[in-house]
From TrEMBL:
Signal peptide: none annotated. SUPFAM superfamilies: Dimeric alpha+beta barrel. Residues 7-99 form the NIPSNAP domain. This is NIPSNAP family protein. It holds the Pfam family NIPSNAP.
């Protein structure tokens, strides 16, 4: 399993648009073989930071999903929310492997 962690810098004045953007992407990730773990938005005070976490069974499965960007009408529509509102100022994507309760250590699964 591979988990994508996206760190966003958002426009706090456009939080409603960012929530619409997030809801749409949660639906699309789940529809295309991933598992979205949610968006994490500012809760107190003025903040321009947000996170999203979602997983795919493998990097290859994620690449299949990414191949739809700019081609699939639903993906284009979701990005239009971001582009027209300006809710996302920038973002950074990192890939991680989760350590979950009961999962074997990577050292014990090495050949």
């Amino acid at each position: 399993m591979i988990t994508c962690v996206v760190q966003y810098v958002i426009d706090p004045a456009e939080i409603e648009a960012f929530e619409r953007f997030g809801r749409r992407w949660m639906e699309l990730v789940d529809r295309h073989g991933g598992k979205h773990h949610g968006y994490f938005l500012p809760a107190e005070g003025a903040s321009d930071k947000a996170l999203a976490l979602f997983s795919f069974p493998s990097l290859a499965a994620y690449e299949e999903y990414r191949a739809l960007f700019g081609k699939d009408p639903d993906f284009i529509e979701a990005d239009t929310i971001r582009d027209e509102s300006g809710c996302v100022l920038r973002y950074e994507r990192t890939f991680m492997r989760p350590l979950l309760p009961g999962s074997p250590s990577q050292a014990s699964t090495a050949p």
